[in-house]
Specification:
Blueprint lengths: L10 E6 L6 H13 L4 E4 L11 H8 L7 E8 L5 H14 L4 E6 L10 H4 L6 H16 L5 E2 L12 E2 L13 E3 L3 H9 L3 E4 L2 E3 L7 H18 L7 E5 L2 E2 L3 H10 L10 E2 L2 E6 L2 E5 L2 E4 L1 H9 L2 H5 L2 E5 L6 H23 L1
Parallel strand pairs: 1-2, 1-16, 2-3, 3-4, 4-7, 7-8, 8-10, 10-16, 11-15
Antiparallel strand pairs: 5-6, 9-14, 12-15, 13-14
Helix pairs in contact: 1-11, 2-3, 3-5, 6-7, 9-11
Length: 344
């Protein structure tokens, strides 16, 4: 391999759930990620739950403590959003973060949409159509679409002045990503010039193919569509739930926290299939709970990890804050060096 063929080092990040009642713990987690020199920290988003239902507010606040690390979402579900208001909030948060926002967008996560109707309004159209319309409008607003001309009733603005959703923030558009699971949705993100976020599950197409094969197909569809649309290779973030542990006691505690089917090995929670994506069948990645070197080896054996530009560690949801910090520190100090040395 020549010097010109050397691959850029992959970006490393963390994906965490920060509950509204535990914002101080969330701040400490983000500060630790920055101390470990990780590139980015993402928040998991859930509505009608405690998991960061207003992630841009949380990120803007956290960004006043963490001064370097980029901060993002995985993902903001567009089913609940108004495109104009979201464009305003994304741009304002990015300004407050000094250009460090890495927002991931997505469709939503429940097949039972009726439970959200009272709080967020019932959908008048198919959810996929609604999400696509919100996404298209959002990107147009971020790109600076003229949405109206000022009339005599807008103070301080000459009549006829072109009006855009404000603020307009250069660079925000190229840092937006879409959380896609299927090849078709991944290709859509590529054509739109968005980054791609790949999670720990993929739609089960009934072929019996493994999680990694299915997800690699989505990644390749994204790259191909991005190149064809003139956006180059794009940017792919892949998240994996791996738990580096250093004692047998830690091993047993974390295995009990992760609700996955068990494989023959006591340190591996196997890839498995379940009805999870919008009520449809899904394939989940395996979770390795083992010593740091074994976790690094498992990640390095993953072809999707090799093909990605960014690797984000998913911290175990429900683990005490101290345990989450312990896992993050082990990843940053004991796993990351193996990854970077082997991938480069």
């Amino acid at each position: 391999m020549t010097a010109t063929e050397l691959r850029d080092p992959p970006r490393l990040g963390v994906l965490a759930q920060i509950d509204s009642a535990q914002l101080d713990d969330g701040r400490d987690l983000i500060l630790l990620a920055e101390e470990l020199d990780l590139d980015v920290a993402y928040l998991r988003v859930r509505h009608l739950q405690d998991a960061s239902p207003s992630p841009l507010l949380v990120l803007a606040a956290l960004g006043q403590h963490a001064r370097r690390i980029e901060l993002g979402t995985a993902v903001i579900p567009l089913r609940f959003e108004n495109a104009g208001r979201l464009a305003e909030d994304l741009a304002t948060a990015d300004l407050l973060l000094g250009g460090r926002l890495r927002a991931g967008l997505g469709s939503g996560y429940s097949a039972h949409d009726a439970i959200y109707a009272r709080a967020f309004g019932a959908l008048a159209a198919d959810r996929a159509d609604h999400v696509d319309r919100v996404l298209q409008d959002l990107l147009s607003f971020v790109d600076g679409e003229i949405v109206a001309g000022a009339d005599a009733h807008i103070e301080g603005v000459d009549p006829g002045t072109p009006l855009r959703v404000q603020p307009q923030v250069p660079g925000l558009r190229r840092r937006l990503a879409y959380g896609a699971a299927s090849p078709a949705r991944a290709a859509m993100a590529g054509r739109a010039g968005l980054g791609l976020q790949l999670a720990t599950m993929a739609p089960d197409d009934g072929s019996g193919r493994s999680f990694e094969v299915l997800q690699l197909e989505a990644l390749e569809a994204y790259r191909e569509a991005s190149r064809a649309a003139g956006h180059g290779e794009g940017h792919v973030m892949v998240s994996r739930q791996m738990v580096p542990v250093e004692t047998e006691e830690e091993l047993e505690r974390f295995v009990s926290l992760l609700p996955r089917e068990r494989a023959a090995s006591p340190a591996v929670l196997a890839e498995h299939r379940a009805p999870e994506i919008g009520g449809h069948a899904a394939v989940f990645s395996q979770v390795v709970v083992d010593e740091p070197l074994a976790v690094a080896q498992a990640l390095l054996a993953d072809p999707v990890v090799h093909a990605a530009d960014e690797i984000a560690l998913v911290l175990p949801v429900g683990a005490p804050a101290e345990d989450q910090r312990r896992v993050l520190r082990a990843f940053g100090t004991l796993v990351a060096p193996h990854l970077l040395a082997a991938i480069l």
